Amino acid sequence: MSNPQAARIRQGDTRALARLATGIENRDREALDVLRELAPFTGHARTVGITGPPGSGKSTLVDALVAAIRRHGKTVAVLAIDPSSRTTGGAILGDRIRMQQHHADPGIFIRSMATRGQAGGLARSTADLVRLMDAAGKDYVLVETVGVGQAEIEISSLAQVTVVVLVPGMGDDIQAIKAGIMEIADIFVINKFDQPGAGRVEQELRAALLLAGGPKPPVLRTVATAGTGIGELLDEIDRLLAAAVPKPAAGAQTTSAAAIDHLGIAVQSLTETVPFYEAIGLRVGLRETVPQEKVNVAMLPTSDSRIELLEPAAPDSPISNFLAKRGPGLHHLALRVPDLNAAVERLKSSGARLLNEPRAGAGGHIYVFVHPASTGGVLLELIQESA
After folding, report:
1. What residues make up the domain containing 328?
2. Does one domain contain both 62 and 135?
3. 192 plus 284 within the same structural domain
4. Which of 180, 330, 165 is nearest to 264 (CA)?
5. Residue 18 — pLDDT band, cuts 50, 70, 90?
6. 36 located within any domain
């Protein structure tokens, strides 16, 4: 990895992670370049949004969820979105007063972010920080929004699972926000269920869901201050994350069965070709040699995928043969699939011509190549999507 800061973050350096997060929030160009270099290491974290009206106990619920996640031996990052201070522009409720019991746990990273005037319940750089926490190796990223209302529903496009928190004593508030939350919630939580009126809130919510039609998100009961119901909530989150058709990862477009992972371009020389891509704003995120393919690879992350420049590492490399026959140019298209083994079995049963069995390649991913004769003329690489 060419950038020392990126390498330190991959090694678990919390101070480097905090510094880069600050740079990303400030839209510092060097920080954004480091984030692009880390792009190949994303796709692992489970992103969960926690939203709901002010006073619903979101922070207490997040605190209890963090403790439950750590009991399972998983790491977690919390991005707490707070209103901006009119004086400093920073978060009014900083992480200095949040979740102090976790400050000494290296498996937990907590970051308060100011909205800086951004509508929708999130800060402008929230999606970038989710990707950063993902690249840093966090198993879960919990995003707590400012609040929820008709306009504050952006969390649903960022999180893989969105939890909407309600509480007794809301009065007509459940009706006021109904149109928004009916669309974004994957799980409803009635927090402070030990207080009077909790049963009525649950009845009204279930009635509203019945009238709305469509999928019926589960409705769970919690008392976050006592830890009641938190284990069940985490189990439900994990169940949804493990569903056959999950929601997209942070910042991703609407998902399908497969997504473009990268374009492989055969070149005579990385030394001669890389400067062109750097001139248009791309940076090499990773260089490595893949011995079994006899190829040197330079990965250049883009916003949603990457370009892989492929240079022959030996005269008998497949890339050498490609260059001799066709010259430099597009060598293959790579798609990520949720279940590579299942895809391979389907291809074999359909008579498709596979060039190898699943094996590890550049970046450690598991892949299979499909012959152009079976794909309409393009060499296709299928890659196992990260767990």
Report:
1. 259-384
2. yes
3. no
4. 330
5. very high
6. no
Q: What is the pLDDT of residues 371-387, one digit of tens each?
A: 988 988 889 999 987 64
Domain co-membership, 213 together with 293: no
Give pLDDT tens digits for 174-184. Answer: 544 555 566 78
Final residue belonging to a domain, choices 206, 241, 276: 241
Cα angle: 175, vertex 114, 166; to 5 degrees = 25
Q: What's the CA gap between 71 and 270, in Å, rounded?
A: 46
| Cβ count within 10 A of residue 282 | 18
What does DSSP say about strands 366-370 and 380-384: parallel, antiparallel, or unpaired?
Answer: antiparallel
Model pLDDT for residues 153-166, shown as the tens digit of each residue: 677 778 899 999 99
User: Bridge partners of 78?
Assistant: 110, 142
Given a contact cutoff of 8 angstroms between Cβ atoms, the answer to whether 290 and 265 are in contact is no
Instruction: Please check whether residues 313 and 215 belong to one and the same domain.
Output: no
Across 138-160, average pLDDT:
75
State the amino acid at position 182 in one-letter form. M
Distance of CA 370 to the CA centre of its chain: 28
> What is the CATH number for 80?
3.40.50.300
- Are 224 and 265 part of one and the same domain? no
Q: What sections of the chain are H helices per DSSP?
A: 4-10, 14-25, 29-37, 58-71, 126-135, 155-158, 173-176, 178-184, 198-212, 230-241, 270-279, 318-326, 340-350, 372-375
Least confident of 14-23, 165-174, 265-274: 165-174
> Higher-confidence residue: 350 or 220?
220
- Record the tokens describing residue 245, joined without a space: 């058709």
- Count of the separate structural domains present in the chain: 2
Lowest mean pLDDT among 13-17, 145-149, 338-342: 145-149
- Domain assignment present for 8: no
**pTM confidence score:** 0.62
Q: Is residue 24 part of a domain?
A: no
- Token pair 């991703």 is found at 252
Task: Please tell me whether residues 135 and 188 are part of one structural domain.
Answer: yes
Pick from 180, 236, 228, 183: which is nearest to 48 by CA? 236
Q: Is 337 contained in some domain?
A: yes
- Return the DSSP state at 93: S
**pLDDT the model gives residue 363:** 58
The CATH number of residue 282's host domain is 3.10.180.10
